[in-house]
Amino acid sequence: MNPTDLPLTERLQSALALQRAAYHAHPVPTYAERVDDLKRLRAFLLENQAAIEAAISADYGHRSPHETRLAELVPAVDGIKHTLKHLKRWMKPQRRHADWISFPLAKNRVIPQPLGVVGAIVPWNFPINLSFVPLSAIFAAGNRAMVKMSENSRRLAALLIEKSPQYFPPEKLQFFDETGGVGVAFSQLPFDHLLFTGSGTTGRLVMAAAAKNLCPVTLELGGKSPAIVADDFPLATAAERILFVKCLNAGQICTTVDHAWVPQGKLEDFVRLAQQLVPRMFPSLDSPDYTSIIDVRSFQRLLGALDEAREKGARIVPLLPGPAFDTATRKIAPHLVLEAPADCELMRREIFGPILPLRGYRTLDEVITAVNAGDRPLAVYPFSHDKAVIQRVLDRVMSGGVSVNDALMHVGQHDLPFGGVGPSGMGQYHGREGFETFSKLRPVFQQAPVSALKFFGPPYGARMDALLKFLIR
Fold it and tell me: What number does CATH give the domain 3-221+426-442?
């Protein structure tokens, strides 16, 4: 029987069994084999670039191919290059100090070994970045992988499923489309590690399902990541950098600036700057460089959140000339929101769209207190040239990552770990940390020809008392 003809649960279990059998037959791929896997990943992307860009744009309704290259293909290809450059060093056993009980002649080492089969549940907003960047770490660590795509990435999923066998056998890599119930069944599989990227609500369900198998998880979630513009920082520079990131992918980024804190006396200046800056990037709502909202539900949610804020007294400022939205293309113009009440949806939940609430402040402690009153964010973005201000934010506000004087930049640094904290996620990957996340860092103790334990056995007496007194001091 063709595996695709099997019922869903059996098909997933069959794929996992195939990969696990292959792992047991060859549990530790060589350096050369891992390099080959990474080069195949890169070829997969480069040889199908145009088709990937077209599929993602079709899934969105419209997304600029330039944004797909900038935010997806460049990080994925560059991440593979970084991994290839450092893989040999990452794979080397680590020498560790041998303690008293073994005598100096004993040997301690930590050897990174493959976990086995890793599952990855991928969201729709950056489906190539958030599948191929983890895959580079998963394969570098010597594992096999099953990847479940989003229900909003149907065309891309079909393309990846079709093309994948040209680069990898099914016992190494398989992609799965979300056709209904796949995500639930996928998260219940007894993987050796499970990576989930998506909302906190779904992340909790995934973690609960994985817990039944004692499957370790890495959760990359989201949250309300704030920008904090200090009074000393040039406002025009801060506005330009914040708005570029907020408009990228129409704000549909888990690490984007969710809202911005601006000195109270500079709020109107920020508004005027935004009204000048955004039309330079996108002259109108139908600009081919501006991305659609992913689906009707998200489109209506964002418009509803704007209406609710307006009805509760917030000031809504559209940043493009002409209509504020277009139902046919599901495009929403970038908006600023001032004086949004604390109980409105824009202030209570992650926005995930091209809407930027501005919040005025008088003291930095006021901002710190407000941010700490909510969930720990995935990122925080302080803008200041004052080292004391930056250090105070770093010391007092915990977040998954930090970009100082810019936004999102920490995400694209391959030699920095990426991951959330608390409600914004757990675990991390990218670069060496990705290699280690998907490896078992296995401690190996090799005893010396003479073991110190022979001096500590019974019958106990004065000699033992003297030895223990020497050690406990």
Answer: 3.40.605.10
SS3 per-residue string spanning 31-94: HHHHHHHHHHHHHHHHHCHHHHHHHHHHHHCCCCHHHHHHHHHHHHHHHHHHHHHHHHHHHCCE
Closest CA to 87 of 23, 20, 33: 33
DSSP-assigned beta bridge partners for residue 356: 336
Q: Which residue type is seen at 336?
A: L
Using only C-alpha atoms, the chain has a radius of gyration, in whole angstroms, of 26
Return the half-sphere exposure (C-beta side, CA atoms, 13 A cut-off) of residue 459: 2
In the predicted model, what is the mean pLDDT of residues 67-72?
97
Kindly state the tokens that stand for 286: 């139908």
Task: Show me where the domains of the chain are located.
Answer: 3-221+426-442, 226-418
> Mind telling me the catalytic residues?
220, 254
Q: What would the CATH number be for the domain defined by 226-418?
A: 3.40.309.10
Max intra-chain CA distance, the chain: 92
Contact present, 114 and 33 (Cβ < 8 Å): no
199 token code pair:
């909302």
In contact, 21 and 13? CB cutoff 8 Å: no
Give CA separation, 377 vs 79, 258, 391, 399, 424, in Å: 25, 10, 17, 5, 6
452 burial level (CB within 10 Å; 0-12, 13-18, 19+): middle
Tens of pLDDT along 295-324? 999 999 999 999 999 999 999 999 999 999
Residue-wise pLDDT for 100-149, tens only, equals 655 567 788 999 999 999 999 999 999 999 999 999 999 999 999 999 99
Helix, strand or coil, per DSSP, at residue 439:
strand
For residue 73, the tally of other CB atoms under 10 A from its CB is 19
Q: Which pLDDT score, from 0 to 100, does residue 468 have?
A: 82
Q: 31-47 and 129-140 are packed helices; what angle lies between their axes, rounded to 10 degrees?
A: 160
DSSP 128: T
- In the prediction, which pLDDT does 103 show? 58
Among 288, 281, 310, 240, smallest CA distance to 68 is for 288
User: Rounded to an integer, what distance in angstroms lies between the CA atom of residue 107 and that of residue 449?
Assistant: 11
DSSP-derived secondary structure for 168-206: S-TTTEEEE--SSSHHHHHHTS--SEEEEES-HHHHHHH
Instruction: Decide if pLDDT at 450 tops 90.
Output: no
Rounded to whole angstroms, what are the CA distances from 326 to 36, 147, 236, 291, 336?
A: 46, 34, 29, 12, 18
- Return d(Cα 253, Cα 125) in angstroms, integer: 7
